[in-house]
Amino acid sequence: MSSKCLDADVLTRIKQQRSEAFLMKLIDLFLKDGPMRIQEAWDAGKAKDLKKVALSSHILRCLADNIGALSIRDLAAAAEIASSGKESSVYLSHILFDLDIAFAETRSCLLIARQGMSENH
After folding, report:
1. CA end-to-end span of the chain
2. What angle do CA 33, 35, 39 make, to 5 degrees?
3. What is the C-alpha to C-alpha distance for residues 105 and 103, in angstroms, rounded to an integer?
């Protein structure tokens, strides 16, 4: 697992404190809801609805923080901050584009982690 992609300590802590099944549910939730939140942010940005961009980014940041998805967490926080001010839409577009790329990378890392867990059974 790339340290840029995921914080392995977060995944281990969740598995130890809760259960592997709980961690699998968190991973599935992130993989299901993450793309929806990114798309909401894109759509809201195109509509110049910065409050909705901020809300979608905030929810994504929380989802990412729960699972230890570092790059998603940081980019979602940047989008949240950018959309709460008078930042240019170009800057916000760059962040959202980077979020798309980071999500694809994080998805791969999570799928590998999930596969490793299911192979241990």
Report:
1. 20
2. 115
3. 5
Question: What tens digit of pLDDT does each residue of 66-103 get?
Answer: 999 999 999 999 999 999 876 566 789 999 999 999 99
Query: What SS3 class is residue 119?
Result: helix
Domains of the chain: 8-119 (1.20.120)
- Is residue 5 within 8 Å of residue 69, measured between CB atoms? yes
Is the distance from CB of 67 to CB of 12 less than 8 angstroms? Answer: no
Q: Which two tokens stand for residue 33?
A: 């809801």
Give the 3-state secondary structure of 11-27.
HHHHHHHCCHHHHHHHH
